[in-house]
Structures are given as structure tokens and as C-alpha cells.
Amino acid sequence: MAKCDICGKGVVFGQNVSHSHRRTNRMWKPNVRKVRAVVNGTHTTMHVCSRCLRSGKVTRAN
């Protein structure tokens, strides 16, 4: 699974807990997109989470 190249957000592991308190493993995946962005004046492809896209930490290449 890809990590965000800006903030480093990645997969988080935990457990499902049923009503009878049985536990099984699960994971939460971040909303990571492959985006063409402008970095130091060049167009590069990066993995960026939706929060970094929304907050304007990445300038997208058109």
C-alpha cells in the first residue's frame, strides 16, 4: 500500500471487536491518490492523500 509522500500517512492496523468480544485483525487504508505535481519546477508523479490535496500542500500539474 502506498504512503503519502507529503505527510507520510499510511496503513493503520487494529482489530474488529464483535458483540461477543471476539477479535479479528483489520486495517484502515488512507485515501491516497497518484497525482502529477510540480516539484522544483518539474512535473513528477507522487502519491498524495486527499487531505494534503484539499489543504493545498501540492500544486497539481495541468
* Strand portion: over 45%
Q: What structural category do the secondary elements indicate?
A: mainly beta
The gyration radius over C-alpha positions equals 16 Å
- What is the string of SSEs from the N terminus onward? EEEEH
Q: Report the principal-axis shape.
A: rod-shaped
Number of strands: 4
Mean pLDDT: 94
* Strand order in space, largest sheet: 1-2
Fraction of residues in H or I helices? under 10%
Give the CA-CA distance, first to last residue: 26 Å
Stretches with pLDDT under 50, minimum 5 residues: none
* Largest β-sheet summary: 2 strands, antiparallel
| Continuous helix count | 1
Question: How would you sum up this structure, described in words?
Answer:
- By secondary structure, the protein is mostly beta strands.
- It is 10% helix and 45% strand.
- The protein is built from 1 helix and 4 strands.
- It has one helix at 50-55; strands at residues 12-17, 23-28, 32-39, 42-49.
- The strands form 2 sheets. It has a two-stranded antiparallel ribbon. It has a two-stranded antiparallel sheet with strand order 3-4.
- It is rod-shaped.
- It starts with 11 loop residues before the first strand and ends in a 7-residue tail after the last helix.
- The mean pLDDT is 94.
Give a brief outline of the structure.
This protein is mostly beta strands and 62 residues long.
